[in-house]
Amino acid sequence: MSKSHNPGDSQKRPAVDQSAGAITGLVGCCVTTLLMGTLHAWSVLVADLEAVTGIARAAVSMVYSGALVCLTLAVLVAVPLYSRWSPSFLIFIAAVVAGAGLLIAGTGSLTWLVVGYSIVFGAANGLAYGFALQLSARVWPARPGFAMGITTASYGLGAVIGAQILGWSADVSGSLATLRMHAVSFFVLAPLLWFLIRQSGVSYVSATSGTADDGESLDSRQLIRYWLAYGLACAAGLMAIAHAEPFLSSLGGSTRSLSIQGVAAMGVGNVVAGVVAGVAADRIAVGRIVVLLPLVSAAALLLAAFVDSVVAGVVAIVVVGLCYGATIAVYPLVVAKAFGSGRSAKAYGRVFTSWGLAGLVAPIVAGYMFDATQSYRLPMLLALCLSVISAVVASTFNTDAHGTSRRSR
User: What domains can you pick out in the chain, each with its CATH number?
Assistant: First the structure.
């Protein structure tokens, strides 16, 4: 075990029961990602922010896009901090910085929205999410798929719950007050997160390799395959998910309530699928899972492209959401198995950039296609093609029947 650089954690503590420590640590990781996942509930604040501040809708929407960029960059570049600071200290700092970002954003001008929400909150979000995801596998090394799956699912759940709570708060108190109150929730929960992670006794040092993420170079050809397969699968899912409500509404003018229920079901299914996929990854070959998921998604997208009823559209979009949720939950484990626990965070940070790119580009491309054709058929067919290509690329992963990968040379 490496020595902590946080003076407060350097004191000798009594040994923690392994099972109790594992549960405490996993709860800490899940609460961290649950809290950070609220970043993706931004859309419920957009209309009120536009009305209150007078900022154009496009500019308000770009605040969230900027947050995605900073989140992605933080997952990529923050890896050295994982082993430099103690886990409890890092999570605490990330939560406090995230709260500070929200407090800044609550001042209301476009400049401070960008600084507070896009840059500060976005970067703190990426730091906390990326670290909690990697730490969860070390908290529960016997079942890393389950640990990573439920931690990822908690991130998605944060977006679902956040949309409900923040949306209600924005209706009652306004969007700027909501941002400031949300900042307080981070300040209040930061000590709890510190306590949970500290009590678990977990260290970022790998329990299997005995080393933290090192400076070894990664096989670029292997990395590109994982980057491409993950990015294409995410792009396909996000194309459909980002336009889920207008897609369902376009199938029937008098069925908006059913459309909204379908989107909600898709969000919940996304979360559940993350847990199920993580559990499955501990039991069957992960290589099969990352090939099967985009193929199932492609079948659902084919249905979505030619469907003419809202009920069938809901079924299709929920299946796409399930596959997307499972994909983002299982890929961290796939990457960890491919590159080894000592280099998993570094490798995943690079692979994760494909998610950031997909999140920025895919919804916009789908929107342009709809504007050009006044139909969602072409975007759904494009998403189908991306899913199939993802499955083809994933089939080249060097994964054996036990779910372990052989490093390319």
Answer: 15-200 (1.20.1250.20), 220-394 (1.20.1250.20)
